[in-house]
Write a structure and sequence with these properties.
mainly alpha; two-stranded antiparallel ribbon; 497 residues
């Protein structure tokens, strides 16, 4: 498996002029350069790294989890100030759009080749991944290219389509992927098991992931009038019958001490065990620590280091240089070096896999859908299952879990607002591994009630979306302009109504 990671690095460094360059030959570029299985593992990992680093970081700040100490007052300024122009900047911005469409193109190339060779597992799972990426792009930008996208030089100025339409088409694309995975033979001539860095060729787990992605996309629409589509698609999921994730979807191509997990290396410690810039410049918010404290939540001990016998946080934004917000006075991330050499909550080892989607999220999504009356089932059971799976991943003792669940403030039946109860526990459970879902849920529902950044343009302004990148404005401005105003503070995506 370690060789797959090395191959991925070569894929990124060398393949840009061959497989990755969709402008050379949009039909089958680079098909003789890398075998299909290598392209698939590399495309998966590229998507997973984007999720766990770039996208996770945006959610960390906008989802109420992270702020900065005094010494990092100038760090992450674009996120703390909601500066859409800086975020979309061609050189120094956060390239969500560019990275996502690059990954979409990688998977399209895989699909094109897999169709020619009748490798249904690779084409089907690539469609599932494309569905994930299109949904992500809508969540950030609303209207985006869909039908005209991924055509290389055949269509260099793709038309934009409405966010709702793309959402519906992406969910149907995932359904098509499920069908191909189910029709794929259990063993293929090119052995996906050794090159599927997510599920090692396990078709059942791929279908469970696909159903869970679709459920997330349907739950996202809870505040808009799209019930006919929601119920139809839920019926398709339930009739298909494989169900949702029961294990975490974790990517690992063979991370090692010399080629470690990018999330670990970026936010905790490098291969030399030196604390990284992100670990020095990011701290938990006081709001996050207050929620852990009010709920007597033992998970906090797996995530952060105490300072002077307590967990100390910061505010989002830097209005003051008071000593209590300094690096030395606030709690850094906790990992093996601060845990007696043992794995900690989200930082376990250089060899750990990337959490692409957690089974805890799958449980909370089901709990919300059941509570809304969309599905049959026991919402309380799924709610507790989500908490349990979070505790298990973080390594909290079973006895602590039992005590936690019996508290009135955690007990589902005693909650006066059960949707808020679900979302609050989901927010706590997804910390660190899927931060972006906190921002998505906050935009959708306003839960939890997150403090605003003290560097926001106005007291009430919140980020609602990202602006189309400069690269798109320079090459496809007519279509981008026709897609509508993309103001970061005033124009919400279609499901945020």
């Amino acid at each position: 498996m370690r060789n797959l990671y090395i191959l991925f690095i070569l894929f990124l460094c060398v393949g840009c002029d061959k497989f990755l360059d969709v402008n050379d030959n949009p039909n089958r570029p680079g098909s003789s350069t890398l075998p299909l299985r290598a392209k698939f593992s590399a495309a998966l990992l590229s998507t997973g790294i984007q999720e766990s680093t770039q996208i996770n970081q945006i959610g960390g700040f906008w989802g109420g989890y992270w702020g900065t100490p005094n010494e990092a007052i100038g760090q992450f300024a674009d996120l703390k100030q909601y500066n859409g122009l800086a975020i979309r900047h061609q050189r120094d911005g956060i390239k969500v759009w560019e990275s996502a469409y690059a990954n979409l193109n990688y998977f399209q190339l895989i699909i094109d080749e897999a169709v020619e060779t009748n490798e249904l597992f690779f084409s089907g799972s690539s469609k599932v991944m494309q569905g994930w990426l299109f949904l992500r792009l809508v969540d950030f930008y609303n209207n985006i290219p869909f039908s005209d996208a991924l055509k290389g030089t055949i269509k260099i100025d793709p038309a934009y389509e409405g966010g709702q339409h793309v959402y519906e088409q992406a969910i149907q694309l995932i359904t098509a992927g499920i069908d191909e995975i189910k029709r794929a033979p259990n063993s293929t001539t090119i052995d996906p098991g050794n090159h599927d860095v997510l599920f090692q060729g396990d078709k059942t787990k791929w279908i469970q992931l696909a159903n869970t992605i679709k459920l997330r996309g349907l739950v996202r629409q809870s505040q808009v009038n799209n019930q006919t589509f929601i119920q139809t698609q839920l019926g398709i999921i339930l009739d298909e019958g494989t169900g949702f994730l029961t294990d975490n979807a974790i990517m690992n191509p063979g991370f090692a001490a010399s080629n470690g997990n990018p999330f670990y290396i970026s936010y905790y410690r490098d291969q030399a065990n030196a604390s990284t810039n992100n670990r020095e410049n990011i701290r938990p918010t006081r709001y996050l620590l207050q929620q852990f404290d009010q709920l007597n939540d033992p998970r906090v001990a797996t995530l952060f280091v105490q300072v002077s016998g307590a967990y100390q946080g910061v505010l989002l934004g830097n209005p003051t240089t008071a000593p209590e917000y300094s690096r030395s006075a606030t709690s850094p991330f906790k990992g093996p070096a601060e845990n007696g050499g043992n794995p900690a909550g989200i930082f376990k080892s250089l060899q750990q896999g990337l959490v692409f989607m957690s089974s805890a999220e799958a449980s909370f999504l089901q709990a919300e859908a059941i509570e809304r009356g969309w599905m049959n089932g026991n919402a309380a059971q799924k709610y507790e299952e989500g908490i349990t799976r979070s505790f298990q991943y973080l390594g909290v003792a079973a006895g602590d879990l039992s005590t936690y669940l019996t508290q009135p403030s955690v007990n589902y039946q005693q909650a006066t607002n059960k949707i808020e109860q679900i979302i609050t526990q989901k927010w706590l459970a997804l910390y660190g591994n899927s931060n972006i879902e906190a921002w998505n849920d906050y935009r959708r529902l306003g839960y939890p009630v997150l403090p605003n950044s003290l560097e926001a343009p106005t007291a009430n302004s919140r980020p609602l979306r990202l602006m189309y990148p400069e690269t798109e404005r320079m090459t496809n401005n007519t279509n981008a302009t026709q897609a509508g105003d993309d103001d970061i503070l005033n124009n919400a995506v279609w499901w945020d109504r």
